[in-house]
Design brief:
By secondary structure, this protein is α+β, with helices and mostly antiparallel strands. The chain is built from 8 helices and 10 strands. A 5-stranded mixed sheet has the order 4-3-5-10-6, with helices on one face. The longest helix is centred in the first third of the chain and has 27 residues. 31% of the residues are buried.
Length: 286
């Protein structure tokens, strides 16, 4: 069995869908399907029960999944040990804005257990660069939020967080149980500087051009609302400071937490980071 084929198998097993697995692997579906059929022929048994809605592991597939994950993890550890012996075992991770997310701490602990001899360098960036320096080549992998220009990048979603309108506590809309973007029409918003990724800017501005104070950091967003009475979008789960409140926005898609890296980068530390991140965020229950 080839390690590459086992990675394909694990992706299909985790996504429970050939199309989603192909997208995750950045390949088309036909060669992925052929690789899985070849693996099933090699094993001598079906690994998936297939249906129009997706796939489900067979008993044989369940056994193989556990063994494949162990084998792939061992292979990654071997590559990392060789890199450590050569003095090259470092990973630069970009973190966006407020890195107090408890899942980040869970991921850090898990990654240390996987790779105790790897030096992890952190580059925390403000809200004007959602790739955390990835496009500029400043980091190996980014733990960030979408949407942003994904050209040349591999992106794996880890969590989706609902969002709401950030308002001053004395705002006429502050007492509402829910809002729609139309309720905020004509209001001044905090916004990001010119040159900020347009996908990112459009999302946090509710899909429309806005007028209002320019901000670069989470605390600046909050202060813009507190001092100027502007509005903006924030995570529903973030507890606002005194004087502010968050009201759910019914017609805004959730904010995606993602791991991103340069497509085609074969560094095993990056792949291991993405896998550890997926496991850590799955285990959070969020």
């Amino acid at each position: 069995m080839e390690l590459r084929t086992l990675r394909y198998f694990v992706a299909v097993a985790e996504e429970r869908h050939f199309g989603r697995a192909a997208a995750r692997l950045h390949m088309s579906q036909p060669p992925l399907s052929r690789a899985i059929r070849s693996l099933e022929a090699e094993v001598g048994a079906a690994l998936f029960d297939r249906s129009p809605s997706g796939v489900r592991l067979t008993a044989v597939g369940t056994v193989l999944l556990a063994e494949a994950r162990t084998l792939l993890d061992q292979a990654d550890r071997l590559r990392v040990k060789v890199a450590a012996a050569a003095g090259t075992a470092t990973l630069t991770v970009g973190l966006l804005g407020d890195s107090a997310d408890p899942d980040v701490a869970r991921l850090a602990a898990a990654y240390r257990r996987r790779h105790p001899h790897v030096e992890v360098r952190i580059r925390e960036t403000d809200l004007t660069d959602p790739t955390c320096g990835l496009h500029a080549g400043l980091v190996d992998v980014a733990l960030t939020r979408g949407p942003f220009d994904e050209t040349g990048l591999a992106v794996r979603e880890l969590r989706a967080d609902p969002v709401g309108a950030l308002l001053r506590a004395d705002d006429p809309l502050a007492g509402r149980t829910g809002l729609r973007l139309a309720d905020l029409a004509g209001r001044r918003w905090f916004r990001f500087p010119p040159g900020t990724d347009p996908h990112w800017q459009a999302y946090w501005n509710g899909g429309e051009p806005r007028e209002g104070p320019v901000v670069r950091a989470v605390q600046e967003c909050r202060q813009a609302v507190l001092w100027n009475g502007t509005v903006g979008i924030t995570l529903l789960g973030h507890r606002p400071p005194r004087g502010l409140t968050v009201v759910p926005l019914a017609d805004m898609p959730p904010s995606r937490v993602v791991a991103a890296w340069n497509e085609g980068d074969a560094n095993p530390l990056i792949r291991s980071f993405a896998e550890a991140a997926a496991a850590a965020y799955r285990g959070s229950g969020n």
